[in-house]
Each structure stands twice: as structure tokens, then as C-alpha cells.
Amino acid sequence: MKVVNFTEARNNLKSVLDSVIDDADYTVITRRDSNDTVVMSLDTFNSIMETFHLLKTPANAEHLMKSISQYKNSQVKVEDIVGE
């Protein structure tokens, strides 16, 4: 994560935007008289939103955690996909 002030972000906007994409990270822009903001790539934002969507219902979150646990404990069954 990088932190830049508003003036620096404005003066170097292309560099700030390129950095969040190239580094797959986000940048916090601080502002003196207002709330700070965050700049991130669309891919990062979409990934966060997908994770939020998958975990927002307790039943789905529990199912995912159980699946991850089974995978980590080598309790998986590999099957061929029909047609391949």
C-alpha cells in the first residue's frame, strides 16, 4: 500500500494509476480538509466484491470454509469433466 497526498496524486495521476495496476495494490490519497480515499484497479475491486458476495451469507461462508478445510486435508476427489 502506498500513501500519497492529494497534490502529489493530482500532479502524478498517471503514475499513481499505473502503480496500482502494475503492483496489484492500492494507494491511499490523503486530503487535508476531507476524508482520505483509496485508488485500486478494477480487477482488485472486482475480486474484493466477489469475496464479499461469497461470504456475506453465513451458510455460504460456512460451506466455503468447510470446502477449504477439506482441500487442505487432502479430502478431495478429482473427476474428469464430461466431454474432455
TrEMBL record:
Pfam families to which the protein is assigned, alphabetical: PhdYeFM_antitox
The family this protein is said to belong to: Belongs to the phD/YefM antitoxin family.
Described purpose of this protein according to its UniProt entry: Antitoxin component of a type II toxin-antitoxin (TA) system.
PANTHER family, A to Z: ANTITOXIN YAFN-RELATED, ANTITOXIN YEFM
InterPro entries from the UniProt entry: Antitoxin_Phd/YefM (IPR006442), phD/YefM_antitoxin (IPR051405), YefM-like_sf (IPR036165)
Name of the protein in its database record: Antitoxin
SUPFAM superfamilies named in the record: YefM-like
